[in-house]
Amino acid sequence: MMACVISIGNELLRGKTVNTNAANIGMKLTLSGYEVTKGLTIRDDPAEIAWALKTGMESADMIVTTGGLGPTFDDMTIAAVSKALNLPLIDDPETAQRLRERYARLGLQATTERMKMASIPEGSTVLPNPVGAAPGIFLQIQGKTIVILPGVPDEASAIMDSILDRIRIEGTEYFSESRFMKGTMESTLAPIVNKVMKEMDSKVYIKSHPRHSETGNPAVELEILARSEGKEHAKDLVETAFNRIFEELSHRSKDIRT
Amino acid sequence: MMACVISIGNELLRGKTVNTNAANIGMKLTLSGYEVTKGLTIRDDPAEIAWALKTGMESADMIVTTGGLGPTFDDMTIAAVSKALNLPLIDDPETAQRLRERYARLGLQATTERMKMASIPEGSTVLPNPVGAAPGIFLQIQGKTIVILPGVPDEASAIMDSILDRIRIEGTEYFSESRFMKGTMESTLAPIVNKVMKEMDSKVYIKSHPRHSETGNPAVELEILARSEGKEHAKDLVETAFNRIFEELSHRSKDIRT
Description:
Chain A is α/β, with parallel strands linked by helices and 258 residues long. Chain A is built from ten helices and eleven strands.
């Protein structure tokens, strides 16, 4: 199953904020058995949100959005999703009550802007926010699952955790291991990685990340991933791939610098 | 002028790597006068790279890509861009010579995988990489500017810096200021921000980011941006907007918690 992560917010595009949400959610989706195939970052703009939703739904089964759920004028995700999917906005009484209580406790008025956070697209489920005001939204439509999360990283992460059991793909196990290889250059590994991946019939995914060791010598972080029906099998595949790479590397020892 | 930032790499989608490149480049483009309107993150896959390039060129004048320029099997950006734009790949003799010297100095062979980094799409210019092997590419085609950068953050950043004078939009000045407001909630500010932005006829962009002060009391970081023909004018607009917000806020002092 494919997944698309949509990040909404001008501050991400302008570089004011580094998009840690996309990485956090991408990791959780991957470990839940999804293949994250697209990330779309867009402005706080209804037409852009509609475009991203359409693009995500064309290529993925699971779409997770972050951002644009708060009380400010540029928090327009819910209204835009509602319009794009032709689902009327309805008031969620429980959320409305929770918001009124929250603001009463804080000695603040339940303004129109604040109560906007109790509006949800018809047919969706509210995902309570354990650390903030704006709840998330869970929606299944046209055979797709859409999860709408706030942009504040702690809130997005907490709500995402609360649905992992619900979205996890049955029978998918995932294993990943990284090892640092000092004195090896990425370009030395390239043909070996290529060979081993072909050999193993693309059951593993091997990725090298160039690093620098403390002494300034070249180093590579080698990450090998396997997903299988059983955790042990995924682990075995990763172990086999590492062994094959070390074996091949030992034949080319003149390239290894210590 | 609009800009689109394309980030290429499975590790970004899977959440193994946080996409700091997109923020760094987004910031530099914004300060150079561009409006960054889209960010696309895609897999190391030629069809996906072609899709992102097409999507970027449809909506933006400036397209910057990062990732997929190294010597490994999954570094396929140049080949994919070349194919998508129907530009044959040619060898850049200077880059080839530089790579041969580099690997000779390191006591390594100039393998096919390594020499791939000297291939560039016809009509493009090589952007030397002051901190790594893979050079960047600068390409103007169909009225668009395409900048292709490596994925290693230091390398992407250094090459990007080397072209800022070349890509800067003449006569565009940009000013941005952030102030922390302790004891104010984002939802208190929302109607005020709305009012002031309307008043100022969208010449400024006001963004609030909820923060928590050390004491656990609510706090907001208020960021105001203005772009104008002159730096002083942009600065004045920002100052005016802050003053208007403080003025409005003082009328609603019961909402302010200290």
